[in-house]
Amino acid sequence: MFSETFMADALALAIPTEHVPADQVTDGSPGTGSIPLTEWDDRDVGVWVMTPGSMTDVETDEVCIIIAGAGVVHRTLNGVRVEQPLIAGTVLQLHSGEETLWIVTETIRKVYLA
User: Fold this and answer.
1) Residue 4 forms part of a structural domain
2) What would the pLDDT profile of 92-113 be if each residue is shown by its tens digit?
3) Which of 79-102 are b and which e, b meaning 16 or more Cβ less than 10 Å from the residue's Cβ?
4) How far is 1 from 52, CA to CA, in rounded Å?
5) Could you give the CA distance from residue 50 to residue 63 in angstroms, rounded to a whole number?
6) Which stretches within 1-114 are classed as H helix?
7) CATH number of the domain that residue 29 is part of
8) In the predicted model, is pLDDT for residue 3 greater than 50?
9) Is the dihedral of CA 85, 89, 90, 96 positive or negative?
10) Domain count, the chain
11) Is pTM, for the whole model, over 0.85?
12) Do the Cβ atoms of 20 and 30 come closer than 8 Å?
């Protein structure tokens, strides 16, 4: 159950970004930022953005929905390295410890439950 009643326009939220640490950047100068919205069953719900460029990451358990932007995420599923498109409507489940490569061509915005 939601800890409080809330409503947010996830596309209109102003989300400040910070430069991705240099050891994670693989191309360009991407930035990321997030805004937590609420908690649900001890999980955080929020909105995250990444500006164009590419970066590596180590994930936490999360389900997310891409609501804007374009790019791809490289990851390993069932032992096979795959490239998943990131466009509005894409739903992803990420797993704790999973190593990913995010390549963003148009600022990505996602709603997450982690």
Assistant:
1) no
2) 999 999 999 999 999 999 999 9
3) eeeeeeebeeebebebeeebebbb
4) 35
5) 16
6) none
7) 2.60.120.10
8) no
9) positive
10) 1
11) yes
12) yes
